[in-house]
Amino acid sequence: QQEKEDLQGKLKFKEHLSQTAGKSEATPAPSKNSNLEMKQLQYKLKNSNNEISKQSTTIKSLKNEVLEKEERVRELQAKISRLERDLSMKRHLIEDLRSRLKANQENEKTSNETLESLERKVKALAEDCANKKSSIDSLKQRLNIATKEKSQYEQMYQKAKDELEKKDLKVNDLEGKMIATEYAMTELEATASQQLHGLAKQTGEALETIQKKLLLTNDKVEEFMTFVKALTRELQQSVQELRTKIKRAKKVGEVRECKKGLSQESVQLAASILNVSTTDLEEILEVEDDEETVKAKVEFEKDKEWLQYIQKLPEEQ
């Protein structure tokens, strides 16, 4: 703008010079110096006009740039207003996030505490699991031992079951015999009742003879009772003797089988190693079976119960 004002001043000055030049044409011809100065001024005016045209074009371009920059400023102001709104919203969001961060930090603190407690619990549970695992291993070992014992007991049970079936057959046979004897006794009782009815019809003399016979029969019954008791004792003793003989025979057979398996030289060698005689070695070989002794005790108790039962029967009937 300052250059424009200077140029306008120069232009006015040049116009003034041109006017003075026009006036001077009416006057007599000037001197050479004035013509030269006039030419210089015209040249300067021409240059200034060119400069003015350039400056006008630059002014126009600058105005356009100013308009564009003003438009850009307005756009930037609108953008700044939007950014300020966004900034305020972001500030609110940051404050909200700070509050959430504070709450999350507190929650994290409590979570860390709970996590530490849970880690302690997990460690305790791991130790407990290790202890339980060791106990489970021991229980598995015990279970294997128990299964082996179970198989052994099942074999013993099968043997006992077979023996029980045999004894059941014997008991059934005895029950059949008892039924036959009871039938015979009922027949005897029927005949005796018939005879008693016949005797009741007889005279008093016959009654006295019957009383005498009754006394005799009572004596015979007592004798029968004593006979039964003695017989049962003898039966028990004979059964026990037979069992001991069978047991000894089994032992002798086992010893003989053992002797058959061993040569005389090996027997003498074993006796010399143990520093005993051959008879003592045979007694050592006669090892008593615990199962056989238990079985013998059970049979002895059964025989004892049978003896008491048989001895009570004549007294009750």
TrEMBL record:
SUPFAM superfamilies xref list: Tropomyosin
GO CC term (a single one): centrosome
Skewed-composition ranges (Basic and acidic residues): 1-17
GO biological process: centriole-centriole cohesion
Disordered as annotated region, ranges: 1-37
InterPro entries noted in UniProt: CNTLN
Name used for this protein in its record: CNTLN protein
Native organism: Pedionomus torquatus
